[in-house]
Specification:
99 residues, 434 Repressor (Amino-terminal Domain), 2 strands, 44% helix
């Protein structure tokens, strides 16, 4: 899963408020691969529906929430054949070779 770290504060308290953004497209893909809805992820992760909604909308969430999301997804099997039905995930753009 792709995450981007976001410093949500200033000064010495900033480390207590570190958050990150999950790739919303990747998260939705991972849910689809398992045949899950957002509510299934809420139940499996123990995270609030509001936090799951925030993550699915690309808003920052706490690292502990990301850990719980990833743990829940890793515990759930991917459904056979679903990946073949989905479009390939978008790859980040390649940087031109400078040689």
């Amino acid at each position: 899963m792709v995450v981007r770290l976001i410093d949500a504060g200033q000064g010495h308290q900033a480390s207590n408020r570190l958050s990150a953004r999950i790739s919303r497209h990747r998260l939705d893909r991972e849910l689809t691969l398992r045949g899950w809805t957002a509510q299934d992820l809420v139940r499996a992760s123990g995270i609030s529906a509001a936090t799951i909604t925030s993550a699915r909308q690309g808003r920052p969430v706490r690292p502990s929430s990301i850990h719980r999301i990833v743990t829940a997804l890793l515990r759930a099997p991917v459904l056979d054949g679903v990946a073949e039905l989905l479009d390939e995930p978008e790859s980040p753009p390649m940087l031109p070779d400078r040689n």
